[in-house]
């Protein structure tokens, strides 16, 4: 059975490669930086979620840096498993911030020395101080700033504020919300609780990854006035009980069509019309649209559930491999990747360098919420949006400024998973 | 002198198989049993000797519900695969006269196995969906007004796929048993005045018992341990025991999964032992 699992993982990766194949890269603005090229024999093995295992990035890294990045795509749970149980099987862990809360105490990673990170000072402050703007409030859940630093390289607890030791360098992040089929919902969708509308009975879905699904459930419960949480990202046992009881009740009434676990499943549910409103990830919405099916990433009154990916380095790295890892990460933040990711609808960690790698129209559409002047193309050259389109949810600051909670690992994790299982079994 | 040599030879001959069993069966299962008593946190597994994993498992109504659901899947699948498998095998063994055609038709049965299990499973999804082929056809024919929602993401679709995937495991051993039946027994039965139905139930069925038992063991153990089909075809709405384990493992709760694995192993062994009591496979092969 484990073999089967591996097969699915591989398939997902192949699919990623398929999307990547035949890439026609958009015009690169600015002169390419010349990086040290005396490290041709170095291979860095990187694993991560399908989101960021992007072949173009590995290819471009090979061209710019000279060494090879081997990417493996796994699902979220498998990432945590691999990181903790097979620490020598990778050099770079491309993981989510909530994962590092689980992985870091296992002592399999080493922190970055911020002095060696060229663009550290330019990283979006969400990941350093935690505040997007000086007056922002840090959102609930495992906000990146809460797990971003440690006091000493070997400490297992996270530092309360900024230090010189950075656990992870952020690479990709986004704000998630519900995806809808505007042609089929037939009403205005403005709140998380709209997924409970009896009109959508048997036509809704939420995701079945416990640590993320529970957050979407919490957003829905809070919106529906079922309960109010102290911290959605760190629920008490009583809060978990009540949330799960509500979910079971909703499931028994037949509100859900299915629960999805992988990116492809969510795309298929939406494209085939099995569901008309569901939890979704931004590129999944793009994937549905690219099949000619209307799909909207609906901003909601209560705000977004956000997530962030970053790169961390394995403890066993040293010498030339370690310096290659630093080179790779500095290169990652130097702009080309940023532009590439922003043009996919994600956000990059360093905005200035990414801006230099995007056209004015692209920057206006993706980052500033302005209507597109010409057609907006994906990094692979396919038309994603026609001229005049405006991004769902608006600008970077509108979207990332409205984050209500981050994907999280709770202290009552063990209890939560048991309860989640009871929800699925109910 | 002779006896001693031959005894050593015997030991020598069984060594490879014994080693294979030891390394690939005994040691892994022993490890699972040991780990099932360990303690764990979100990030680590702590060697200990606790009964907590078993208590949490056995005292939870969810476990019982899930086991019941899994046994229900296994039972329904077993009945359907048996009925279809027996009929198919009967047709192949007794209605198809030419040996060549028997071979050809038997090979036809295996054609679906040329593609992977997962693909055969997933291909049902677009067929059964709300806007799928089945619903579209029925609606065009005017037989239904609304799409039938129970076709996909339900226990129906789970059992359907099980039956589709595993019927051949019944056909093969039953067909094999039927081919070994001495045809003169059937003639004798008819000569003695039995109807063909009586021949079927009193002669063929009892003589097929070993084949049925082998097929049943295949089907029941596979269904009891399955998690992919349940998850894909129920759309995550139903649970199975193995799915519980997969969930626990994905969250690094290996001891909890190990405890569940031990319990499942015991349950399945009991079921198989029950079947072996009814039919002595070795004696009748």
Describe it for me?
The complex is a heterodimer of chains A (426) and B (285). Chain A has 15 helices and 18 strands. In chain A, helix 3 packs parallel to helix 4, helix 6 (210-224) crosses helix 7 and helix 8 packs across helix 9 (282-290). In chain A, the strands form three sheets. In chain A, strands 1, 2, 3, 4, 6, 9, 10, 11, 12, 13, 14, 15 and 18 form a 13-stranded mixed β-sheet that branches. A three-stranded antiparallel β-sheet of chain A has the order 5-8-7, with no helix packed on it. By secondary structure, chain A is an alpha/beta fold. Chain A folds into two domains: 2-25 and 35-167 and 305-333, Periplasmic binding protein-like II (D-Maltodextrin-Binding Protein, domain 2, 3-Layer(aba) Sandwich), CATH 3.40.190; 179-302 and 409-425, Periplasmic binding protein-like II (D-Maltodextrin-Binding Protein, domain 2). The longest helix of chain A is centred in the first third of the chain and has 19 residues, at 2-20. By secondary structure, chain B is an all-alpha fold. Chain B has one domain (30-284): MetI-like (MetI-like fold), CATH 1.10.3720.10. In chain B, 75% of the residues lie in helices and 1% in strands. Chain B is built from 15 helices and two strands. Chain B starts with a helix and ends with a helix. Classes of the chains: A alpha/beta (426), B mainly alpha (285).
Euclidean distance between termini CA atoms of chain A: 24 Å
Query: Looking at CATH, which topology of the largest domain in chain A would you report?
Result: D-Maltodextrin-Binding Protein, domain 2
Briefly note the CATH topology name of chain B. Answer: MetI-like fold
Low-pLDDT windows of residues of chain A: 1-32
Helix and strand pattern of chain B: HEEHHHHHHHHHHHHHH
Top-tier CATH class of the largest domain in chain A = Alpha Beta
Name given to the CATH homologous superfamily of the largest domain in chain A: Periplasmic binding protein-like II
Largest interface: A-B, 41 and 44 residues
Number of helices of chain A: 15
Biggest sheet overview of chain A: 13 strands, mixed
| Total of DSSP H or I helical runs spanning 4+ residues of chain B | 15
List low-confidence stretches of chain B: none
Task: Supply the number of structural domains of chain A.
Answer: 2
- Our estimate of the beta-strand percent of chain A is 15-25%
- Let me know the average pLDDT of chain A: 87
């Amino acid at each position: 059975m484990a073999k089967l699992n591996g097969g699915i993982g591989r398939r997902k990766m192949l699919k990623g490669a398929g999307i990547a194949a035949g890439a026609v890269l958009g015009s690169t603005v600015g002169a390419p930086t010349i990086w040290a090229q005396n490290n041709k024999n170095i291979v860095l093995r990187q694993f991560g979620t399908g989101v960021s295992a992007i072949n173009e990035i590995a290819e471009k890294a090979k061209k710019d840096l000279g060494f090879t990045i081997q990417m493996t795509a796994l699902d979220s749970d498998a990432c945590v498993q691999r990181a903790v149980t097979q620490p020598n099987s990778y050099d770079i862990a491309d993981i989510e911030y909530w994962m590092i809360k689980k992985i870091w105490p296992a002592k399999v990673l080493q922190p970055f020395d911020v002095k060696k990170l060229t663009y550290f000072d330019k990283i979006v402050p969400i990941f350093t101080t935690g505040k997007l703007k000086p007056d922002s409030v840090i959102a609930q859940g495992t906000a990146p700033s809460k797990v971003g630093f440690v006091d000493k390289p070997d400490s297992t607890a996270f530092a309360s504020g900024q230090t010189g030791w950075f656990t992870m360098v952020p690479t990709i992040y986004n704000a998630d919300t519900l995806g809808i089929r505007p042609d089929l919902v037939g009403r205005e969708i403005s709140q998380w609780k709209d997924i409970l509308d009896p009109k959508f009975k048997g036509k809704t879905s939420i995701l079945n990854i416990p640590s993320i699904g529970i957050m979407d459930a919490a957003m829905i419960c809070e919106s529906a006035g079922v309960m109010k949480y102290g911290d959605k990202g760190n629920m008490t046992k009583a809060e978990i009980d009540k949330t799960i009881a509500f979910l079971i009740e909703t499931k028994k009434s037949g509100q859900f069509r299915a629960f999805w676990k992988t990116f492809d499943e969510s795309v298929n549910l939406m494209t085939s019309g099995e569901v008309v409103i569901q939890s979704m990830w931004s590129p999944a919405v793009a994937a549905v649209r690219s099949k000619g099916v209307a799909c909207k990433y609906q901003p909601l009154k209560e705000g977004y559930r956000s997530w962030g990916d970053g790169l961390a380095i394995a403890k066993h790295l040293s010498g030339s491999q370690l310096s290659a890892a630093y080179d790779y990460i500095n290169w990652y933040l130097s702009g080309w990747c940023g532009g590439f990711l922003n043009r996919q609808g994600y956000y990059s960690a360093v905005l200035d360098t990414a801006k230099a790698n995007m056209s004015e129209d692209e920057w206006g559409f993706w980052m500033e919420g302005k209507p597109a002047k010409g057609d907006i193309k994906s990094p692979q050259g396919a038309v994603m949006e026609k001229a005049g389109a405006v991004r769902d949810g608006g600008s970077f600051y509108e979207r990332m400024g409205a984050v209500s909670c981050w994907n999280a690992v709770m202290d009552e994790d063990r209890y939560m998973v048991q309860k989640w299982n009871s929800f699925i079994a109910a | 002198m002779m006896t001693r040599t031959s005894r050593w030879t015997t030991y020598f001959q069984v060594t490879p198989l014994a080693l294979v069993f030891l390394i690939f069966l005994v040691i892994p299962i022993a490890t699972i049993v040991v780990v099932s008593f360990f303690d764990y946190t979100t990030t680590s597994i702590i060697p200990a000797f606790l009964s907590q994993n078993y208590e949490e498992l056995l005292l939870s109504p969810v476990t019982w519900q899930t086991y019941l659901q899994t046994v229900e899947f296994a039972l329904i699948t077993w009945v359907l695969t048996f009925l279809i498998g027996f009929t198919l095998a009967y047709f192949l063994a007794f209605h198809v006269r030419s040996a060549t055609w028997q071979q050809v038709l038997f090979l036809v049965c295996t054609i679906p196995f040329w593609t992977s299990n997962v693909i055969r499973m997933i291909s049902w999804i677009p067929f059964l969906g709300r806007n799928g082929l089945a619903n579209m056809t029925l609606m065009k024919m005017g037989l239904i007004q609304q799409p039938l929602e129970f076709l996909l993401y339900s226990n129906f679709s789970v059992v359907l796929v099980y039956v589709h995937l595993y019927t051949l495991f019944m056909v093969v051993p039953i067909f094999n048993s039927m081919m070994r039946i001495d045809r003169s027994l059937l003639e004798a039965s008819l000569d003695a005045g039995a109807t063909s139905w009586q021949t079927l139930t009193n002669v063929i069925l009892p003589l097929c018992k070993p084949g049925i038992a082998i097929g049943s063991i295949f089907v029941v153990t596979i269904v009891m341990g399955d998690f992919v089909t349940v998850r894909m075809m129920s759309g995550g709405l139903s649970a199975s025991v193995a799915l519980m384990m997969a969930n626990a493992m994905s969250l690094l709760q290996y001891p909890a999964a190990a405890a569940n694995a031990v319990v499942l192993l015991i349950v399945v062994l009991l079921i198989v032992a029950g079947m072996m009591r009814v039919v002595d496979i070795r004696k009748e092969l």
